[in-house]
Amino acid sequence: MPNRTEAPKIFDAVELDLQLKPVEKFTLDNGVPVYAINAGAQEVVVVEFVFFSGNWYEEKNIVAATTNFMLKNGTKSKSAFAISEHFDFYGAYLNRNCYNETATLTLHTLSKHLPKLLPEVATLLTDSIFPEEELALYKQNQKQRLEVNLKKCDFVANRLIDEYLFGFDHPYGKYTSISDYDALQRDELVKYYQEFYTKGNCMLFVAGKLPTDIQQQLNNAFGALPLNQNAKLHIQHTQEPAAVKKQHIINDANGVQGAIRIARPFPNRHHPDFQKVSILNNIFGGFFGSRLMSNIREDKGYTYGIHSYIQNHIHDTCWMISTEAGKDVCQATIEETYKEMEILRNEIVDEEELDLVRNFMMGSLLGDLDGPFQIIGRWKNYILNNLDEQYFYNAINTIKTVTAEELQALAKKYLNPEAFYELVVV
Amino acid sequence: MIQFNRFVLDNGLRVLVHEDPSTPMAVVNVLYDVGSKDENPEQTGFAHLFEHLMFGGSINIEDYDEPLQRAGGENNAFTTNDLTNYYCSMPAENIETAFWLESDRMLSLAFSEKSLDVQRKVVCEEFKEHYINKPYGDIWHKMRELAYKKHPYRWMTIGKELSHVENAKIEDVKNFFFKHYRPVNAILVVAGKVSTDDVKKLAEKWFGDIPMGEKYNRNLPQEPEQEEARLLEVKADVPLDAFMKTWHMESRLSKGYYVADLITEILGGGGSSRLYQSLIKEKQLFSNLDCHHFGTTDNGLLAIEGRLVKGVKMEDVEKALQEEIEKIKTELVNEAELQKVKNKTESIIAFEDMSVMSRATSLAMYEMLGDANLMNSELEKYQAVTAEDIRNYSNKIFDEKNSNTIHYYSKN
Q1: What is the ipTM of this complex?
Q2: pLDDT tens, position by position, for chain B (412 residues)?
Q3: Model confidence pTM above 0.90
Q4: SS3 label, residue A258
Q5: Which of B206, B239, B354 sits opposite A44 (nearest CB)?
C-alpha cells in the first residue's frame, strides 16, 4: 500500500537548466532576414512573413486589416477561388492576421509540398489586385459579423477598455464601426499594399523539420522581390487616456452576465520592472492557482474564469484583469479584485506560495519550449520586441531569485485601485 | 506510426505507454468511459459538473491543483457526450506526482459540500457565458431536441437547463462516482520521456490497490430511423436570420463515418469548398457558413449552418443548398477534388500528432473505441474512400426524410 497522505518527492523545477535552442539566421539576396528553427519529428513546417504593416501605419481606419485580409482574394493570374484551391489541394493552411505594429502571412504545410506553395505565396506579395467585387462582399459580410459581435458584452468591453487606456486615435485604442467599412475604397488598399507589402519591410520565420535546401527554396521564391529596400517608417502616436475612470454600460437589457475589465497603463518589456511584475501577475491572476481564481471562482463561484495579464504590445502596454461574472455579483467581483490588490500591497507573499509559483512558471516554460513552432514563436516575440536570448535567461534568473519583498514593493507601486480603469458591460 | 505498449492491471485498468525521448515532458491522461449520454434525463449536465468536482479534493489529498503546480505541472479536463478526459503534463522527473494525484481521486473523492456548492455556481456561470448570454447560443440545444427523440445525444454536455445543475445533490455525486469512476471503466495513458518499465511499477504501486468496481454496461436507447423531415421555426433577439440543417450519419467506427468526414470537407472545408464558393461568394446568400460533424461514438449528425445575408429569404437559401446537395448525390466528385480532401486529412493528422499531449489523448480515445491501434490505420481508411462511396453515402445521408431544419429568425 503506498502512503497516500504524503506527496512523492519532487524535483524542484527551479533547478531545471532551461535552454532556448538558438535560432539560425540567414539573409535572402534582397536583404530579408530569415530566422529558422530546425527541429521536430513530424514532416511539417511553418513559414511566416511578418510585415511591418499593422494598423500603426494606416492613415484611415481598417485599411491595414482589410489589405491584409484580402491578400489572397485575387491576383493578376488567379481568382480568389483558384488561390484557395491551390493551397487546399496540398492540404496547406494559408492564414493572415493583422496586429497593431505587424501583419502576418503564415503558411502551415507538410514539408514535401513547399516547392509547390512558396512561389504561390510570392505572387500574393507582388500580384494581388483587390477586386472590387471581392471588396464589396468582404464589406457586406464583415458588417454583418460586427453586428452580431456588438451583441456580446465581452466584445464590447474589450473595445471600450482599450479606448479608455489609449484614446480612440491611438492604434491600440481604436476600433471599427459599420461606417468605416462603408468608407473603404479599393484604391486605398492598392496603395497600402504596394507600400507595405510589395515594397514593404518584413522578416521571415520558419520552423519544423526543414528540408536541407530550405535556404535555397526561400531565396528562389522570395530573394528577388523588391522587399526591404526602404528604411522602416518611424511613426509616433499620442495616447489620450480617458478622463473618467469608471464606466458601467448596459449593452443588452436582458443580459445575465457582465463583462468586467479593470486595467491600468503599464510600460513595455524593456522596463526594469517588467519581468518581476510578470511573476507578481502570476500570483495575482496569471494561472489557475492564482489569488483571483482561488477567491472569485474556486471560493465564491462568481465566474467561470478570471484572469490578469499584461497585454502583448511592443510600445507602452497595460495590465488587465478580465472576467465575465453573473450580473448580480459584478460589484462583488470588483470589490474582491481590489481586496486582492490590497492584500498584495499589505502582506508579504509567503515562501510556500512563492516557491509554488516559481516551480509552476519553470515547468510551464519547459512545456512552452517543446516543439519547433513553440520555439520559433518565442524567438519571434523577442526579435519583434528588440530583445535577444539574454532576455530569456534573465527571465529565468528572475523567476529563481525574485524576493517576496521585491514583489510587495511592486504591488505597492502598481496595484493601486486609483490607477485602474474599471468597466462593466452588461 | 505511433508506437505504444499496453498492459492491464488486475483491477481492469488499461494502461498505455507511448515513449518519446525527444521531449523533456511527461504526460498523464486519464479517460473515463462516461459522458453526458450516460446521464439521467432528469439530471442532465451531471457528467460535466462532475468533471469540475474532480478538482475539489480527493480522499487523502485536499487539493489537486496545488501539488501539481508545485511539481511544475499543468492540467485540464473536458467532457463530451461520450467521455470525460483528464490530462496533465509536467517535467518528466516529477511524473510520480501525477500518479499520486490521479490514483487518489480514482480511489475516492472527498465529496465536499463546499466544493459542490461552489462548482454548481461556476458551471451555471459557464452555462450563461456560452449558451444564454450569446446571440444564437441556444441553437444547438434546440437542434439536438429536434434531431434526437430517444438517444441521450438529445441534450448538450452542459445540460438541458440550469435547474438540473442547480439541483445536484451530494448523494448523486457519490452514486455517479462509484458507478463510473472505477478502474474497470478507465484508461490511463502515459507518454513522453518515460519508460514502460517505470510506468508499470508506478501504475502497480499507485493504481493497483483500487477496487475494480463493476463494469458499466451501457444500454442506451437507440435513435429509431427518422421517417419524415422536421422543421422548427424560432424567433429571437438576434441581428440576423440564421439557418441550420442536420442529417443523421453513421457511428465513429463505421465506414460511413470516414465518408461523411470527407463529404463535410468537400462541402465546407476552406475557401475552395463547394458551399463556400457557391452560397457565400457566387450567390451571396450566407454571410458565413459551416459544414461539420461531431465525430460522436454513436450515430451522429452532419450539420450545415450559417447566417443569412440581410434581405435574403429562407426559401432561397433552402433552394440553393438543395441544388448543391443534389449535385453531390448525382455526380461523381472528380479525382482532383477527392485527392484534395484526402491531402487535407493527411495534413490534419500530421499537425495533430506534433504534440505529445495530443497523441496521448488520441491513444486513450481509440482505446475507448476498442483498440488504440486504430489510431494508426485512420489515414488508410480515408485513402480507401472512392468517388462512388461519396455519391452513395451522400444519397443515404442527404435523404430529406433524414433531415432536421431550424429557421432562426431575427425579431428585429
Answers
A1: 0.92
A2: 899 999 999 999 999 999 999 999 999 999 999 999 999 999 999 999 999 999 999 999 999 999 999 999 999 999 999 999 999 999 999 999 999 999 999 999 999 999 999 999 999 999 998 998 899 999 999 999 999 999 999 999 999 999 999 999 999 989 999 999 999 999 999 999 999 999 999 999 999 999 999 999 999 999 999 999 999 999 999 999 999 999 999 999 999 999 999 999 999 998 999 999 999 999 999 999 999 999 999 999 999 999 999 999 999 999 999 999 999 999 999 999 999 999 999 999 999 999 999 999 999 999 999 999 999 999 999 999 999 999 999 999 999 999 999 999 999 7
A3: yes
A4: strand
A5: B354
Distance CA B153, CA B300 (A): 8
Q: What is residue A283's DSSP assignment?
A: I
Q: Rounded to whole angstroms, how far apart are CA atoms B371 and B379?
A: 16
User: What's the structural domain count of chain B?
Assistant: 2
Sign of CA dihedral A123, A126, A132, A136: positive
Amino acid identity, residue B27? V
CB contact B352 to A (< 8 Å): no
Same domain membership, residue B304 and residue B198: no
For the domain covering A246-425, report its CATH number: 3.30.830.10
Q: Architecture of A24-222 per CATH?
A: 2-Layer Sandwich (3.30)
CB atoms B60 and A355 under 8 Å: no
Enumerate the residues of chain B whose CB falls inside 8 A of the CB of residue A78.
Answer: none
Shortest distance between the Cα of A325 and any Cα of chain B, in A, equals: 7
Sort strands A202-208 and A33-38 into parallel, antiparallel or unpaired.
parallel
Asked if A287 contacts A305 with a C-beta cutoff of 8 angstroms, the reply is no
